[in-house]
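Weekly puzzle thread! Below is a chain. First person to post its structure in token form gets bragging rights.
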Amino acid sequence: MRQVLDRLSMSFAAGAFGGLLSSLAIWAAGVYDLTDRLAISYAPALTPTWLYPRIVWGGLWGFLFMLPLSGHWWLRGILLSLVPTAFQLLYVFPQETGDGFSGCAWGR
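Winning reply:
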């Protein structure tokens, strides 16, 4: 039982850390006008109300590490990162920006 709880907490912590890094990268892209150059109208403010849900959702996505996949940890990480990335590009960005695929104005 202890090993399961250790794996659960480590998976959540890894996902939350990934959510934090992803949020900071999105925020920095907005601050340095990278999103504007890519025709994505998304420049969030770095506030707790914007950051907190992304960290929690990152932690929840981290539970994907509990899936019984074999292989190297870094390969599993790359493969499992494709699921939340696809969700972000295909659902979250279009919903938050009101634009088409991946939130790009040219994807309408």
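Puzzle host: Confirmed. Bonus trivia for everyone else. The chain has one domain: 2-107.
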